[in-house]
């Protein structure tokens, strides 16, 4: 059973045909949003083609929700797929993380920092 299937409806920011959104319970930055599949799918590669095609619109919707509260200088959008990829909840979710100038000393390399030393190039 997925912990995402037990989320109370009052935490849901938006619900669409395939996905719903909540603020991350352990946010990396203010207004960090998770886009979660309505049905249990393990990761991005388990989504149907229809779900994969609907995801970009949900990312845009998450951005809009974030920008009603804060004005980010950038974003990280990411999905962890499988244990080796860092996934700890085996239910599809996509992180939309607002980024702010100065939130880390040197953000160059962004997602490449998921493997130590690979973000510095």
Structural write-up:
It is built from 1 helix and 5 strands; from the N terminus they run E-E-E-H-E-E. By secondary structure, the chain is α+β, with helices and mostly antiparallel strands. It has one domain (3-114): HIT family, subunit A. The chain has a 5-stranded antiparallel beta sheet, with helices on one face. The longest helix has 19 residues, at 49-67. The radius of gyration is 15 Å and the shape is globular. The mean pLDDT is 95.
Mean pLDDT: 95
Q: Stretches where pLDDT falls below 50 for ≥5 residues?
A: none
Strand order of the largest sheet: 1-2-3-5-4
The helicity comes to 10-25%
Helix count from the secondary structure assignment: 1
Strand segment count: 5
CATH homologous superfamily identity: HIT-like
- How many separate domains? 1
Question: Top keywords for this entry?
Answer:
16% helix; 121 residues; 5-stranded antiparallel beta sheet; 1 helix; 20% strand; HIT family, subunit A
